[in-house]
Amino acid sequence: MDGFKRRRELKKSHILQAALTLFMDFGVQKVSIKEIATKANVSQVTIYNYFESKNNLVHEVIKHYISETWWEFESLFDNDLPFPEKIKKLIFAKTETAQHINSNFYNVIMKEYSAGISYIEELYQKKAIPKMMELFEEGKREGYVDPDLSNESILMYFHIFKEAMQREDIYNKILPMTEDIMKILFYGIIGKGDHPN
Amino acid sequence: MDGFKRRRELKKSHILQAALTLFMDFGVQKVSIKEIATKANVSQVTIYNYFESKNNLVHEVIKHYISETWWEFESLFDNDLPFPEKIKKLIFAKTETAQHINSNFYNVIMKEYSAGISYIEELYQKKAIPKMMELFEEGKREGYVDPDLSNESILMYFHIFKEAMQREDIYNKILPMTEDIMKILFYGIIGKGDHPN
Amino acid sequence: MDGFKRRRELKKSHILQAALTLFMDFGVQKVSIKEIATKANVSQVTIYNYFESKNNLVHEVIKHYISETWWEFESLFDNDLPFPEKIKKLIFAKTETAQHINSNFYNVIMKEYSAGISYIEELYQKKAIPKMMELFEEGKREGYVDPDLSNESILMYFHIFKEAMQREDIYNKILPMTEDIMKILFYGIIGKGDHPN
Amino acid sequence: MDGFKRRRELKKSHILQAALTLFMDFGVQKVSIKEIATKANVSQVTIYNYFESKNNLVHEVIKHYISETWWEFESLFDNDLPFPEKIKKLIFAKTETAQHINSNFYNVIMKEYSAGISYIEELYQKKAIPKMMELFEEGKREGYVDPDLSNESILMYFHIFKEAMQREDIYNKILPMTEDIMKILFYGIIGKGDHPN
DNA sequence: AATGAATGAGGGTTCATTCAT
DNA sequence: GATGAATGAACCCTCATTCAT
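^ Those are the sequences you sent over. The predicted structure of the assembly is below.
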C-alpha cells in the first residue's frame, strides 16, 4: 500500500473511530454527520467522499466495530483454563470495545444482523457459533454440560446472558452477584442438592 | 367527574393510546407529534395543551404503558399452579401489551427506569419486586429453589430472561426450545444427573 | 367558503403567484424554496405545509399557470373578426400571462405535458384542440384554408409558431415582420402570384 | 504540434466529447463536473486545469458542438438538388449531431446565442445566414419564392421551423405529415387553388 | 378549549471549486 | 502536469414548538 492509500486508510479509520465513539455514547440517530466531522477534524463533505451516505457510514462503523469485537471474543478462547472458568470469563469478561455501548447503536447493529447483513452473519455463523459449539462439546465431554441439552438451546441461553452483560446498568448490578449467577448457570435455581422429584 | 373532565380524560386517553401504538411500532424518535396528532384525530396543539412537550408525552405514555403492563403481570400470579408452572408462565407468557415492542421504545423506557423516574421505580420496588420475592420464597419452601441463593440474584437472573423474551426475534427463536431452556433454568447446564465434583 | 379557508386560499395563491413569477424569470431549478418564501413573505415551512414538496409546488404552479393561460386563449375566440384576423391575433396576440416565460420553466411544463399529466392533457385534448379544429373548419368553409390539408397538420404548423412566439427573443425579432410572416402563412413562400408548376 | 500539445489536445477533446454527450442527454445543470470527469476518465481538477470553470467548459462545449454542427449544415448545400428538395432536406434532415438534444442544453445554447457570444454569432452572421440568403435568392430566381418577401422574414420563418425540428417530440409527430407541412410551407394554408380575394 | 397557521433550528446531501502533493 | 483530498455554500426537507384566532 503506497503513501496515498495509507493516509486515506488512516483518515478513514479516524472517521470510523470518531463515529464509533459517538454512536456508542449517543446512538446513531442522535449523532449528526456534522458532529462526526467536527470530532474527526474533517469537513462533512469529506465524510461523504469516503462513505457516500450516513447509512453507509453506519454500515462501515458496524463492520469496524464487529471485527474489533471479534478479536477480543476470539482471544477469550486462547487459554487452557478449566471449563467453568472459561464460561465465567466468557460471560463476565468486560471486553474493551464492547462496553458502554449505547442501546440505540446496539439495536441498529442487531437490525443489521437480523436483516442478514452478510459480513456479520458470516462472522457469526462461520466463526463465533462453531467456536461456542466446540466449547459446549468440551463441557459435555468433561461432564460439565448435560449431554441431553441441544447445543442450540445452550447457545441461546448464553446469548441472552452475554447480551445482557453488554448493558452497563445490568452489568454493574450483576457483578457483585457473580458467584450466585454462575451457580444458577451451572446448577440451575434448584442447586446441586437433592431434588424434589 | 363532570362531563367536561370526562371528555378531557377521554381525549387524553386517545392521544396516549395513539402515541403508545406508534411508539411500540416505530420507536419514540421516529414518530413525530404530527403523526400522533393525525392518528388521534386532534391537532398538534391539542397535544401540547395536554402534555406540554414531546418529552412529557413520552413520560406519560410510559406511565400509561407500565400501568397497563402491570395489571397483566399481576394477574400472572393469580392462580394455584405449582411452582415450576408459574415460572414457565412468567417467562414465556406473552403479555398482551408487552409484545412486539419496538426496541427504541423499550430503551427509552429503560432509560427512564434507570434514571430513577419515580413512578416506575415505585411500582417496581413496592409491588413487582415483593411479588417476585414472595414467589422465590415459595420456591425455596417447596424445594424448587436453592435456599443458599440470594433472592436478588435470582431476580436479576429472571429479569434478564424476561427482558430478552420481550424482543420478538429472541422470543421466536426460543419458543421451540422451551423445554430445554426450562431445564437449564431449573437444573443448570449440568443437568440433574451426577455431577463431576 | 368560510374565512379560514378563504385566507388559506389567498395565501396559497400568493405563494403560487410568487413562485410563478420567479419560475418564469429564472426557471424552476434556479429558484430555491427560500427565494419563493422570501418573495411570498412566508417561511419556507409554510410552503411545505401547503404544497408538501418542491415538485408538488411546481405541479400546482403549472396548473395555476395553465388555467390562467387558458382563459386568455379562450377569449381570443370570443369575437366576430374575419378568419385572417383571427389567425393573426392567435399567433401574435401577446397574452398577458404567457409572455416572458423562462425557457427552463417552459420545458418543465412541456415535460409535464408529454408525461401525460392529466390536467394539462385534458384541457388541451378536450378544449384547446377542438377549438382550433373548429377554427380550421371555418377557414376551410370560407376558402381560407385548403380543404385538402389535414387539420392535424395545420394544428402542428400553428403549434410550432405559437410556441416560437412565446420566446421573447423570437417574438421581438418577428414583430416588425408581421405582414410578411402572415403572407407566408397564408400563401406560402411562393406567394399568391403565378406558380412555377 | 509536438507530442505534449497533441496529447493535451486529445485529452481536451475527450473531455469536451464526454461533456457534450452528457449535456445533450441530461442538460447542463443536471450534469456535475464529477460525472464529466468520470466519463472522461480524468480527475475533476484536470477539467479545471483545462477549462477554468464549469461555465467556461460549457462555452467550449457549445463552440465544439456548433462547429461540428456547422459542417453538417454546410454539407446540406453541397448538392444540385432542385430548390424544393433542398428546402425539404434543410428542414427535415436529421443531422447526426443535432438530434436528441436535451432541451436544457438547447436553451443554454440559445442563451449564449442571444447574449451575442461572438463565436456563434460570427459563424451565424458570416456563414450560415449568407448561405441561407443565397438559397432564398435562388428560390426567388426560379420562381419558388415570392420576390416581395424580405429574406429576413423567410429566414425567421425557416429558423422557427428548423428549431422546432430539433425537438424530438415535435420531430416525431411531424414526420408523418411531411407532405402536408411542405405544402403549407410553399403554398400557405390557402393552398395553390383559387384564392378568396 | 381547540385549532390552523407559522416558524427557527437543524439534518442529510450535492456541487463547483480550491488545496496540496 | 495530474490528481486525491478537502471544503463552504447552498439546497430540499422535517420537526418540535409557538402564535393567533
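Chain A has a mean pLDDT of 82. The first helix of chain A runs from residue 3 to 26.

Shout if you want it in another format.
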